[in-house]
Design goal:
This protein is mainly β. The protein folds into three domains: about 40-160, Cupredoxins -  blue copper proteins (Immunoglobulin-like), CATH 2.60.40.420; about 165-355, Immunoglobulin-like (Sandwich), CATH 2.60.40.420; about 375-565, Sandwich (Immunoglobulin-like), CATH 2.60.40.420. It is built from five helices and 33 strands. The chain has helices at about 10-35, 185-195, 350-355, 420-425, 550-555, and strands spanning about 40-55, 55-65, 70-75, 80-85, 95, 125-130, 135-140, 150-155, 170-180, 205, 225, 230-240, 245-250, 255-260, 265-270, 270-275, 280-285, 295-305, 315-320, 335-340, 375-390, 400-405, 410, 455-460, 460-465, 470-475, 485-490, 495-500, 520, 525, 530-540, 545-550, 560-565. The N and C termini lie far apart (about 65 Å).
C-alpha cells in the first residue's frame, strides 16, 4: 500500500513534517543501537561426567558435561548473565579471568575474596558488562584445584563493523592448554596440604582437552587443525594448565603474535610462543602456499625454572593441510609427520627475549595510557619459605615444617567469609587487617645466598588504596628454597609492564630504563626466575581485588594477597550493593 496525499493538504504537510522529525531523531539512535551491546545469557550446570584419557576413566567436574567447558562468545560492549547451578558435592565459584569487572566486583568469582562459594544445590547469576575489551580471555573455577577441569575460552569480538588491526583470518580457532591427572585433583592437593609435601605431578598436558599422540594410549585423543594452503588462521591460545608455563610451537611454521591478554600488540614473528598459566595470546598462522605433502606437530611442553620436579612431557596436536582439488590427494594417506624443536625446559634467556618483544600498539585508536606520575610505590618479594605444621601433623620439612609461599613474607590465610562483603558492610574485624607491608620485613640479597631464617608469617592482610591511585609495583623473585618464575595475576585491572631484569631490582638505576611509551598491557605477568618485573596501574575500580601466583600449587601455599580500592567521590566511582542472590558462607 502506497502513501498518497496532496501537498495542498495541511494534514498531509503535518504528516510529512512529523516523519522528517522522526527520521532526524531516529537516525542517530539507530546508528547508536548498532554499536550498543546486547545482553547474552548462558546457563552453566556444574555436573560430574565420566571422561576417559590415557586409557583410564574417571569422574570429573564439568560444565554441562563438556570438557573443556563451553566457549563464551560476546562483543565489546555486551553484557553477560551466566547462571551457574551447582549439582556436585564440591563448593564452586567461577572467575572470568581478565574481565575488568568495572564496578561489578561481586561477579569476579574468587572464593572468599569477592564471594562465598556456590554450595551444592544452589545457584548464582554472574552479571557483568565487557567495557573497552576485545580479544581472548578465559573462565575457570576459582576454588581449591577445581579449575583442573572447569575452564573454557572467552572470545570477545570487536564491536560490529570494527575491523581487527591485522589481516582478517579465514577462521578463528581456540587452542586451550590444560593439565591432566589420572588421580582426583582434590585428593592430590588435600593430601599435599596434610603432609606438607609437594603435590603429585600431572600425568599429561592437553590441547583442547586431548593429550595427543606422544602419550601412551592417546593417539585417538588428538586435536587436529585442518588448514587450506595460502590461508590465514587466528589461533586463540589459552594456558589453563594448573602448574606449568609452556613453550608452544608448530613445526616448520612461523607465528605472528598480534594480541596478549586481550590487548592488541605490535605484530612480531616467532617460531615458539611462551605462555604462562593465566595468560592468553592470539597468533596468526599463515598456511604454506602449496600443499606440503606432510603433516606438522603443534607441540607444547613446560618452561620450568624451579627446584622441584615437574611433568616433563609434551602434548601435541596435528596440523593437516586439505587439498583444494580432491583429485590431487596423494595416493598414500600416511604423510610424514614433522616435529618442532622447542627450547630447553629452563631456557630463561629465551623467556626474557620473548617477553621483551611484547609491545602495545600505542596509537590513537589503541593508546597506551601509562601512569606517568606515581602516587604509591610498592616493592613485593615473591617466593617460597617454610611454615610450621600443627602438632597433630607429621610434615616432611625440617622441625615439622612444610613448604609455604608468600608475598613480602606474608603467607595469605583464606578467610571464612568473603573479603568484599566484609569491606562493603564495614565488618572487617576478625576477617582481615589493612596492614599489608609495602616492602619485605628485612632486606637481603634476594637472588643470592638466602638468609638463615626462612620462616614465613601467616595472615589475612590487604593493601588499601584511595580511588584512582597511580601505582608502581616491583615484583622481585627470591632464591629462598630456589629461584623460580612466578606468573602473577591481578584481578580487576590490566597493568603496564614497564621494566624487567635479572638479579636484584636497583631503585636508582633500573627505573631510568623503564618503557613508558609502548609497554605491553596485560593481567598476568611472569616474574623472571632470579629477577624482577615492574608494573604500573591506575586503581580506578572500586572493590576488593585478588593478586596471586597462577601456579596453583603456590596459591595453595599462600602466594596471594588482596588490594582494596576505596570508592571515589562520584556516584559512578562507587561499588554498587551486592546482588540479592549472592551466595552466603
Amino acid at each position: 500500500m502506497g502513501f498518497n496525499c496532496s501537498f495542498h493538504s495541511s494534514s498531509c504537510l503535518y504528516s510529512i513534517l512529523f516523519l522528517l522529525v522522526c527520521a532526524s531523531w531516529l537516525g542517530p539512535q539507530l546508528a547508536l543501537a548498532k554499536h550498543r551491546g546486547i545482553t547474552r545469557r548462558y546457563k552453566f550446570e556444574v555436573r560430574m561426567q565420566n571422561v576417559t584419557r590415557l586409557c583410564q576413566t574417571k569422574s570429573i567436574v564439568t560444565i554441562n558435561g563438556q570438557f573443556p567447558g563451553p566457549r563464551i562468545i560476546a562483543r565489546e560492549g555486551d553484557s553477560l548473565e551466566i547462571k551457574v547451578v551447582n549439582h556436585v558435592k564440591y563448593n564452586v565459584t567461577i572467575h572470568w579471568h581478565g574481565i575488568r569487572q568495572l564496578r561489578s566486583g561481586w561477579a569476579d568469582g574468587p572464593a572468599y575474596v569477592t564471594q562465598c562459594p556456590i554450595q551444592t544445590g544452589q545457584s548464582y547469576v554472574y552479571k557483568y558488562t565487557i567495557k573497552g575489551q576485545r580479544g581472548t580471555l578465559f573462565w575457570h573455577a576459582h576454588i581449591s584445584w577445581l579449575r583442573a577441569t572447569l575452564y573454557g575460552p572467552i572470545v570477545i569480538l570487536p564491536k560490529r563493523g570494527v575491523p581487527y588491526p591485522f589481516p582478517h583470518p579465514l577462521k578463528e580457532v581456540p587452542i586451550v592448554f590444560g593439565e591432566w591427572w589420572k588421580a582426583d585433583t582434590e585428593a592430590v592437593i588435600n593430601q599435599a596440604m596434610k603432609t606438607g609435601s609437594a603435590p603429585n605431578l600431572s600425568d599429561a598436558f592437553t590441547i583442547n582437552g586431548l593429550p595427543g599422540p606422544l602419550y601412551n594410549c592417546s593417539v585417538k585423543d588428538t586435536f587436529k587443525l585442518k588448514v587450506k594452503p595460502g590461508k590465514t588462521y587466528l589461533l586463540r591460545l589459552v594456558n589453563a594448565a594448573l602448574n606449568n608455563e609452556l613453550f608452544f610451537s608448530i613445526a616448520n611454521h612461523t607465528l605472528t603474535v598480534v594480541e596478549a591478554d586481550a590487548i592488541y600488540t605490535k605484530p612480531f614473528k616467532a617460531n615458539t610462543i611462551l605462555i604462562t598459566p593465566g595468560q592468553t595470546t592470539n597468533v596468526l598462522l599463515r598456511a604454506k602456499k602449496h600443499h606440503p605433502n606432510a603433516s606438522f606437530l603443534m607441540a607444547a611442553r613446560p618452561y620450568a625454572t624451579g627446584p622441584a620436579t615437574f611433568d616433563n612431557t609434551t602434548t601435541a596436536a596435528i596440523l593437516e593441510y586439505v587439498h583444494h582439488d580432491p583429485s590431487q590427494k596423494p595416493k598414500t594417506s600416511k604423510l610424514p609427520l614433522i616435529k618442532p624443536k622447542l627450547p630447553f625446559f629452563n631456557d630463561t634467556s629465551f623467556a626474557a627475549k620473548f617477553t621483551s618483544k611484547l609491545r602495545s600498539l600505542a596509537n590513537s585508536k589503541f593508546p597506551a595510557n601509562v601512569p606517568k606520575k606515581i602516587d604509591r610505590h610498592f616493592f613485593f618479594t615473591v617466593g617460597l619459605g617454610l611454615l610450621p605444621c600443627s602438632k597433630n601433623q607429621n610434615c616432611s620439612g625440617p622441625n615439622n615444617t612444610m613448604v609455604g609461599a608468600a608475598i613480602n613474607n606474608i603467607s595469605f590465610v583464606q578467610p571464612k567469609t568473603a573479603l568484599l562483603q566484609a569491606h562493603f558492610l564495614r565488618q572487617s574485624n576478625g576477617v582481615y587487617t589493612s596492614n599489608f607491608p609495602t616492602k619485605p620485613p628485612t632486606r637481603f640479597n634476594y637472588t643470592g645466598t638466602p638468609p638463615t631464617n626462612i620462616m614465613l608469617t601467616k595472615g589475612t592482610r590487604v593493601m588499601s588504596l584511595p580511588y584512582n591511585t597511580k601505582v608502581e609495583l616491583v615484583l622481585q623473585d627470591t632464591s629462598i628454597i630456589g629461584a623460580e618464575s612466578h606468573p602473577l595475576h591481578l584481578h580487576g585491572f590490566n597493568f603496564f609492564v614497564v621494566g624487567q631484569g635479572f638479579g636484584n631490582f636497583e631503585s636508582k638505576k633500573d627505573p631510568t630504563k623503564f618503557n613508558l611509551v609502548d609497554p605491553i598491557e596485560r593481567n598476568t605477568v611472569g616474574v623472571p626466575s632470579g629477577g624482577w618485573v615492574a608494573v604500573r596501574f591506575r586503581a580506578d575500580n572500586p572493590g576488593v581485588w585478588f593478586m596471586h601466583c597462577h601456579l596453583e600449587v603456590h596459591t595453595s601455599w599462600g602466594l596471594k594477597m588482596a588490594w582494596i580500592v576505596q570508592d571515589g567521590k562520584k556516584k559512578n566511582q562507587n561499588l554498587p550493593p551486592p546482588p540479592a542472590d549472592l551466595p552466603k558462607c
